[in-house]
Amino acid sequence: MLRVENTLFTIVMLLYFAAMILYFVFIAVKKNPIAKAAVILQTAGLVLHTAALICRGIGAGRLPLTNQYEFATAFAWGLCLVSLIFVYRFRFPVLGAFAAPIIFLVIGYAAMQSKDVHELMPALKSNWLGFHVSTAIIAYGSFGVSFVLSILFLLRDKAKEGGFFDTHIPSREKLDLISYRSVALGLLFLTFTIITGAIWAERAWGSYWSWDPKETWSLVTWIIFAIYLHLRIRRGWHGKAAAIFAVIGFVCMIFTYIGVNTFLPGVHSYR
Amino acid sequence: MTFAVILLVLLVVACAVGSFVKQGQTFDWYAASYSETAAAWIMALRLNDTFHSWWFIAITAFLCGNLLLCNVFRLGTLIRRTKSFGDAGNAAKRAADASVSGVSDPESVFAALRMPKPQQSETDGIKILYSSKHRIGLWGAWVCHIGILLLILGFGLGQMTKQEYSVYGVPGQTRPIGDTGLFLSINDFRIDLRDDDTVEQYTADVTVWRVPQGSTTEPDEQRAVISVNHPGRMFGMTFYQNATGWAAKVDVTKSGEPLQSEIVCAGEYLPIADKKELVVYFNAFYPDYALVPGEGPKTVSGRLNRPAYLYSVYYLGELLGMNALTQGETITIDDYEVSFSEPQNYTLIQIKRDAFTSVAFAGGVVTMIGLLLAFYILPQSVWAMPAEDGTWTVYAESKKRRAMLRDELERAVSATKLKITGETDAQG
User: Fold this and answer.
1) Using the beta-carbon criterion (under 8 Å), do B8 and A219 form an inter-chain contact?
2) Is B229 in contact with A204 (Cβ distance < 8 A)?
3) What residues make up the domain containing B325?
């Protein structure tokens, strides 16, 4: 089963790469059928990616969400899922064009990690693992999409009237709303991640909050997006300032995910 | 709100500093790791204990005060808004986020927008069709703030009042639990290993008891089997299987006569019974000992294949020697002979009583409910008023979906094949 997963993973990488190239071609030649083809390729990638994760789970005999490789590939899956939901929901293929390189980078990062299947240490053998990590994946995916939308929001300002960005990207007001919806989804799931993590930590370590670097930086990310929400409803600060905070929030999230494990090891440093 | 944002930014900075500066170290440690000047600043600003420093607590307290006042001040407005949101009489005075005129069958637009069946009322002689939904969503941020307050309150009170103890020992041993008057007896401790020597689970069977004092209805003894992720609850306290290590029986003889026999855990000192200035320190245990050149002593597996004990001997605080003993070997110091045997795992049980954990978790749940209300139960009202030409104008209001509302109205109108005459409200 793990061999099948390995093969599927390679195909998924190729599909994501091909989708990314098609998106770039779409931006270059501005033909909508190319965007449609890219979305179809990305959707096919997501379906096979789901199959790969299931194979990994069956092969490992547990939820495939416990080490750097598994979390990275699941993060790429979450990012792809949330971005496609927004692409379909808001008929917005340009979002896919900007999300595709990030998805490819994340799955590339996953490819560089060890794919070995290890048995779980006792602290990780808990039903809370599934809730805690799967909600984190949706939260991270949503923040990734909000990052892309905020970048588009900031680029929109510089768009020429009647140019590609002007005709293919929704108005600033709509972009702001879509970005807000994405942050809202992310914040809701991040809150769920933190709460389930706290319940689990209480059972496993006897303390639901111990200022471990991962916990602290999850809180930092949460606060940054809380600031984003407050700025968004504040006159004179909404729009650009809020978009900048969404970008900062995503950078914090990436630091929480990769930076903390690298620079600030704590009880969450599972390799 | 500006003050709240400033406080949140300060919290972010404080958390970042607290995570980068290693917590709980001494001045000498910081001086050696950074510089003397940096160490002086770290100690002066209490960055060595950021999350318990007076300024971190002050920021959190100000945030709580801000949240509380914000909620108190908003309560009246929210109640009024909630009431007026369901009141058709106010509809005519309200600014719409989007509107469509020239509608001949307004009820079909309500249906297309998935609004509840509109009510009909009349204000100042004007007939109004009115429908609203998701009023409860207006309370999302307010409920979320209450949740955060509960969370911080529960955490803060827990930090101030919680009792924590730790007890370690091997099966058969009984130890007091701090100053509680309770005792913990370790009945059994098991480490389940997999075929690859990795640990499957640590399980301890423990009994907690107290010396009975007169007649009492409370049981004097409670027993639980605890393992990682499965704590036990006894006498109002929670017992966690926290850690493990190796212990061994240490026998001391003097001139060939038995003098002392005790279970000693790795990391513990054993003063010789009749010569306290002579101390044996049990440094470490190697279940499958190997001395690798260039690497020093190590264990090649977790199995008891070739047990060895690393020890040090001190006299009046001075190190006399250090070495590793294998099974059956002894240390000879003048008339004394010391030997190690019967290696076994000890368990470290963490014990906690925190009455406010449930308050903090309740805060978490309330925060989640608040976020759900704020993000996904979006208040929306739609009303229609007749125009002079006999058609209707349909208005819609949903502050959080303004940008989408116009499109939805237009789609609803297209779906009902109505004629759009344009017009969107300037407020939208």
Assistant:
1) no
2) yes
3) 246-346
Q: Single out the residue in A79, A96, A119 at which a domain terminates.
A: A119
* Same domain, residue pair B182 and B329: no
B342 and B251 assigned to the same domain: yes
Are residue A45 and residue A141 in the same domain, yes or no? no
* Nearest CA-CA distance, residue A171 and chain B, Å: 9
The identity of residue A113, as a single letter, is Q
Q: Are B301 and B276 in a shared domain?
A: yes
| Domain final residue pick, A75, A94, A119 | A119
Chain A partners within 8 Å of B401 (Cβ):
177
What's the one-letter identity of residue A69? Y
**What is this structure's pTM?**
0.85
How large is the ipTM? Answer: 0.85
Predicted confidence band at B91 (pLDDT cuts at 50, 70, 90)? Answer: low
- Within a domain: residue B312? yes
Task: Please check whether residues B114 and B179 belong to one and the same domain.
Answer: no
**Which residues of chain A does B60 touch, with a Cβ-Cβ cutoff of 8 Å?**
none
Contact B114, B415 (CB under 8 A): no
Q: Are residues B105 and B240 in the same domain?
A: no
Which of B17, B19, B193 should we substitute to test contact with A (largest number of A Cβ atoms within 10 Å)?
B19
Facing residue for B12 by CB, picked from A184, A223, A231: A223
- Asked if B180 has any chain A CB less than 8 Å from its own CB, the reply is no
- B368–A173: do the CB atoms touch at under 8 Å? no
Partner A, chain B 237-276, Cβ-Cβ below 8 Å = 238, 240, 242
Which residues on A lie below 8 Å from B400 (Cβ)?
A: 180
Short-list B168, B340, B324, CA closest to B261: B340
Distance between CA atoms of B28 and B38, rounded to whole angstroms?
11
Question: Are residues B398 and B315 part of one domain?
Answer: no
CA–CA dist B423, B393 (Å, integer): 10
- Are residues A115 and A84 part of one domain? yes
Please give the Cα distance from A233 to B279 (Å, whole number).
Answer: 69
Q: Are residues B122 and B263 in the same domain?
A: no
The answer to whether residue B333 neighbours chain A at the CB level (below 8 Å) is no
- pLDDT string in tens for chain A (271-residue length): 888 989 999 999 999 999 999 999 998 888 889 999 999 999 999 999 999 999 999 998 888 888 889 999 999 999 999 999 989 988 888 888 889 999 999 999 999 998 888 888 888 889 899 899 999 999 999 999 999 999 988 888 777 777 777 777 888 888 888 888 899 999 999 999 999 999 999 999 888 999 999 999 999 999 999 998 888 877 666 778 888 888 999 999 999 988 888 787 665 554 4
Residues A133 and A108 in one domain: no
Candidates B230, B365, B375; nearest CB to A188: B375
Interface contact B364-A216, CB threshold 8 A: no
Please tell me the least confidently modeled range out of B59-63, B138-142, B191-195.
B191-195
pLDDT at B398: 85
Q: Please, are residues B199 and B227 in contact by the beta-carbon 8 Å criterion?
A: no
Domain coverage including residue A192: 127-271
Question: B384 to chain A nearest CA, in Å?
Answer: 25
Mean pLDDT of B287-316: 88
β-strand partners of B205:
B188, B225
- Asked whether residue B77 is assigned to any structural domain, the reply reads no
